[in-house]
Amino acid sequence: MATRVEAQQQPLRLRATRRRWGEDVVKVVLALCAFVSVATTVGIVVALFAPAFEFFGEISIVDFLTGRNWAPLFEPPSFGVLPLIAGTLLVTACAALVCIPFGLGSAIYLSEYAQPRTRKFLKPALEVLAGIPTVVYGYFALTFVTPLLQDLGLGVGVFSALAAGLVMGVMLLPTVASISEDSMSAVPRDLRDGAYALGSTRLHVSTLIVVPAAISGIIASFVLAISRAVGETMIVLIAAGGQPNWTWNPFEAVQTMTAFVAATGQGDVPTGSLEYKTIFAVGATLFVMTFFMNVIAIRLVRRFREVYE
Amino acid sequence: MSAAAGQLRRGRPRGLWTGRIFLGFLIVSLSIGFLTLGALLVQVFVEGYKWVDPVLFFEPPSADPLIAGARPAILATIYLGILLILFSVPLGVGTAIYLEEYADRDRWYNRMLEINIQNLAAVPSIVYGILGLAFLVRGIGLGRVLLAGALILTLLVLPTVIIAAREAIRAVPDSIRQGAYALGATKWQVVWRQVLPASIPGIATGSILALSRGLGETAPLLLVGALTYVSFNPTVLGDFTALPVQIYQWIARPQEEFRTLAAAGILVLLAILLTLNAFAIWLRNRYERRW
């Protein structure tokens, strides 16, 4: 009798009776899938920086970063990356002039002015712009925008930073619009209602309440768009020209870092030659620039998620 | 009473015109996107529609624009698409399951993994091309083959697939998991028989969008050597050129006829990609479940 009571008082055993090896195998396989992403990052860093360091063993990094003449194939060669960086920034600036004001405008309209039914239709329609391949935008810049600019009397040649940058700006509109719109939609209704109750107009609610409240997401969208403009290849390869050019005039043809990498990497460059290593030196510069912008953007997005969600 | 109501009436509307000008600016902003999209589609269609003919689909490229086609490029793009789905969906869904169902969020390496994936999603596509050139084409000596292109595109779209799959898995309510556990299911049984079936529509939508993005990429393929002249049907371990790369080659040629041919190629490419996108959106609307 006494032993029986003891048995009943023993706590219920909830642990598995035997180890299920299958479950462990599954977990390891899934972790290996996840490891592929880590390996990709490690691969990118090694692939870029190992040859880049070899390159900087032969060419001084100071000359590389401060030289104003990029002529790796000339005799004597010159490896000043500034013209490529200037070309990249020039195209990026043209793109930013389009995608930042108009992307933010689109976002404010979608979030604050549009009826829910209109928004449901407009938002995916705008996203179509993001789904068009970049080679198509390059074609459009070269065959439509450049002649249009010439007809308008702007002194652009066949290739120009302006044509490439404007088209890139339109391509990046959905990036700015959708991330900004997400962060504006996350602003609680109470804030808007409070402002309306005090007699604000829709203009004031949008610009003085919603935009400041969503500012971290909005800035994140700008940073991300600029990072993508810096890393964009095909539009500039097709429409911006192929000659390094130390200029701040958007009507001139320029070569960007990405266009140089694509133009050099597509040929039969002998492995291990100095020319081959320039691909990686320029690629590493590009990667470092975009990496820092991406880190900033990701942190800002995280912040607006934390504040309101 | 009436006096109190009178005080609530609005006086002279202030800022009416500023408001209207602001609204005008917003509408202009939105129009710029749509006008450009319209101009682009019209331009490509007007230039290229006459050249979308059997020659384009069934003939190999040629130095003579009149008999040049894109058969090897179109076939290679189809092969790339099949390989891309085969590689990226299992890897992406596996990673998503790991992160959502298995990973302990408090561990530093799991948080790092998440940040790492977000970063990878924003790495410029040409950098993936450099990775492919250094490791696949030259490093392990795979050469400039279709498989190298497919692998590089896989790594490129993997973050997109992972992010979409994670959202789909996260949308499955916890009560379903608890219910399955209560009936004695193991963790994997819960994932395989409950969570995954419920999240298939979301995963499929995300995967198709990723496929469409990958098939439109040109820059990374240039670096893994898709710029060669290919007149024969592609094989997985042979030379290749994809449709976007073929279009780029045609644009880069000086003759006007090749520009027209490029427009025709763009029409084919856009038809493939927009069909994929429309299918993905249809899938989402048809099968999306609100719990």
Your description of this structure?
The complex is a heterodimer of chains A (309) and B (291). Chain A is flat and about 90 Å long. Chain A has a single domain (78-308), classed as MetI-like (MetI-like fold, Orthogonal Bundle), CATH 1.10.3720.10. Helix content of chain A is 75%, strand content 1%. In chain A, strands 1-2 form a two-stranded antiparallel sheet. Chain A has 309 residues and is mainly alpha-helical. Chain B contains twelve helices and no strands. The longest helix of chain B has 33 residues, at 16-48. Chain B is globular. Mean pLDDT of chain B is 89; it is low at 1-6.
Rg result of chain B? 25 Å
SS elements, strand count of chain B: 0
CATH H level, superfamily name of chain A: MetI-like
- Estimated share of beta-strand residues of chain A: under 5%
* SSE sequence of chain A, one letter per element: HHHEEHHHHHHHHHH
Structural class by helix and strand composition of chain B: mainly alpha
Helix content of chain A: over 70%
Order of helices and strands of chain B: HHHHHHHHHHHH
The CATH topology of chain B corresponds to MetI-like fold
Cα gyration radius of chain A (Å):
27 Å
Describe the structure in brief.
The complex is a heterodimer of chains A (309) and B (291). With 309 residues, chain A is mainly alpha-helical.
Keywords:
heterodimer, A: 309 residues, mainly alpha, MetI-like fold, two-stranded antiparallel sheet, 13 helices, flat, B: mainly alpha, 12 helices, globular
Which SSEs are present, and which pair or pack?
The complex is a heterodimer of chains A (309) and B (291).
Chain A: H1 2-9, H2 21-58, H3 61-66, E1 70-71, E2 78-79, H4 82-113, H5 116-131, H6 134-151, H7 161-185, H8 189-197, H9 202-213, H10 215-231, H11 234-239, H12 257-265, H13 274-308
Antiparallel strand pairs in A: 1-2
Chain B: H1 2-8, H2 16-48, H3 54-58, H4 71-102, H5 108-121, H6 125-139, H7 146-170, H8 174-182, H9 187-215, H10 219-223, H11 243-252, H12 256-287
Helix pairs in contact in B: 2-12, 4-7, 4-9, 4-11, 5-7, 6-7, 7-9, 8-9, 9-12, 11-12
